[in-house]
Amino acid sequence: AQSVTQPDIHITVSEGASLELRCNYSYGATPYLFWYVQSPGQGLQLLLKYFSGDTLVQGIKGFEAEFKRSQSSFNLRKPSVHWSDAAEYFCAVGAVYNNNDMRFGAGTRLTVKP
Amino acid sequence: NAGVTQTPKFQVLKTGQSMTLQCAQDMNHNSMYWYRQDPGMGLRLIYYSASEGTTDKGEVPNGYNVSRLNKREFSLRLESAAPSQTSVYFCASKGSGAGRNEQFFGPGTRLTVL
After folding, report:
1. Regions in chain A scoring below 70 on pLDDT
2. Cβ neighbours of residue B29 closer than 8 Å, sequence gap 6 or more
3. What is the chain A residue with the closest CA to B56?
4. What is the per-residue pLDDT across B7-16, written as a single tens digit (0 to 9) for each?
């Protein structure tokens, strides 16, 4: 089965600084890739998704992610972080052969310093 | 359009007690899912229902049962709760079509088993 690794458990950045959250996946074919955000006490909201085509994907709230097949990565970026971006971020990979089988990473908690 | 709703929001049980978590969606989605979220482990799939009348096990089904009551509703039952089932439970739904369709999540149920 596919799997996801988010190497950073917790990241702290200053407001206005750039952000990159790492995601590495393991899957035998081209996966479906997702980034979700979870604010405290809330459910998950989709930020962006990749299925095929252009490897740079734009999402909501100014986020983007780049699919790099050679590195099995799908890192999330934002050029300038806002205090409201403080949340937990989850990378997920979906299997092409079973569209109900989605695996999530353990999450990266983002703290934004004023 | 409420999306995915879950009841209750919070629940405390004693070991051995039973309870049912309710989930409903109003997006006419075919597929519905139950996940549990534990610190440092991301979300893990318990059960899913690809369509009305069908259910399948996910990654961690032991100790749980599910019922797809109709297209809108998908319930999760704990017959004899154990402390290891203390977790946050999320319900999600997804439209039909290719696996590229993202899952929409409810706000979660925080369950504590004493």
Report:
1. 97
2. B71, B93, B94, B95, B96, B104
3. A100
4. 999 999 999 9
For B82, other C-beta atoms within 10 Å of its C-beta total 12
Closest of A108, A111, A88, A114 to residue A21, by C-alpha: A108
Q: How many Cβ atoms are within 10 Å of B102's Cβ, its own excluded?
A: 20
Sign of CA dihedral A77, A82, A88, A92: negative
User: Does the CB of B50 have a partner CB in chain A at under 8 Å?
Assistant: yes
Torsion (CA) B74, B18, A101, A6 in degrees, nearest 10:
120
Q: Least CA distance to A107: which residue of chain B?
A: B42
Strands B104-105 and A87-94, bridge-based pairing: unpaired
Collapsing DSSP to helix, strand or coil, A84 comes out as helix
Distance separating alpha carbons of residues B100 and A10, to the nearest angstrom: 29
